[in-house]
């Protein structure tokens, strides 16, 4: 599929019929990766479309390609660009990057004073985020909104999150602060320098979070705070 044949735009009421397709692919993708996501219903995704808080990618024929949406937390102090998903047929076409850029711009338009954050288990998403100016942060720098964290209950890794006192989990936290941030070129360069470290860290997390040894836990904290 040629890049120019895919349209990326703000979702609207005419896209509601695709909500179930999108949520089904979200769940299937998470299972295939062996990781977890906070499950969303078709009705929830449809609401985001109706509110103008979603970005959808379609072919010129109207076939669904990808989707992402905005959530607001802590009375608008934080917003999250959540649920990024691309249909398997269109992965590795660059469309995920286009969706992330449009949802980021939409968030800045709607919530210019808000901090934008995301949680991801994927190195590719981390790379895209870094190109937008996001920085890796600790969980303590994210929203403390209980409703947000309650949304993680449907994730297969929820027990890990709670066992760590909501201070860590399989996901990596990233944040863009409109009042205090590096330029995208700086965060992108930093990510490129540290990408191998992040990759090892993610694998290390997966290994250690499934172990009970206190020695290994201590080793993880030593590694994480590089």
TrEMBL record:
Q: What is this protein called?
A: N-acetyltransferase domain-containing protein
Q: What SUPFAM superfamilies does this protein's entry cite?
A: Acyl-CoA N-acyltransferases (Nat) (SSF55729)
Pfam families linked to this entry: Acetyltransf_1 (PF00583)
Source organism: Filimonas lacunae
What the entry lists under InterPro entries is as follows: Acyl_CoA_acyltransferase, GNAT_dom
Residue limits of the N-acetyltransferase domain?
54-110
Q: Which GO terms describe its molecular function?
A: acyltransferase activity, transferring groups other than amino-acyl groups
């Amino acid at each position: 599929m040629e890049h120019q044949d895919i349209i990326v735009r703000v979702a609207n009421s005419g896209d509601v019929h695709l909500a179930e397709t999108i949520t089904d692919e979200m769940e299937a993708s998470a299972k295939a990766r062996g990781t977890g996501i906070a499950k969303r219903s078709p009705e929830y995704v449809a609401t985001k479309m109706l509110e103008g808080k979603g970005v959808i990618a379609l072919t010129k024929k109207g076939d669904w390609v990808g989707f992402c949406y905005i959530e607001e937390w802590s009375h608008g102090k934080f917003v999250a660009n959540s649920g990024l998903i691309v249909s398997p047929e269109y992965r590795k076409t660059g469309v995920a990057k286009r969706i992330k850029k449009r949802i980021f711009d939409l968030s800045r338009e709607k919530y210019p004073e808000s901090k934008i954050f995301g949680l991801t288990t994927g190195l590719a998403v981390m790379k895209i985020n870094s190109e937008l100016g996001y920085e890796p942060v600790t969980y303590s720098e994210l929203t403390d909104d209980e409703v947000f964290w309650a949304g993680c209950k449907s994730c297969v890794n929820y027990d890990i999150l709670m066992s760590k006192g909501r201070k860590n989990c399989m996901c990596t936290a990233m944040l863009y602060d409109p009042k205090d941030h590096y330029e995208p070129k700086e965060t992108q360069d930093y990510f490129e320098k540290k990408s191998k470290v992040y990759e090892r860290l993610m694998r290390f997390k997966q290994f250690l979070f499934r172990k009970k040894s206190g020695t290994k836990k201590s080793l993880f904290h030593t590694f994480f705070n590089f």
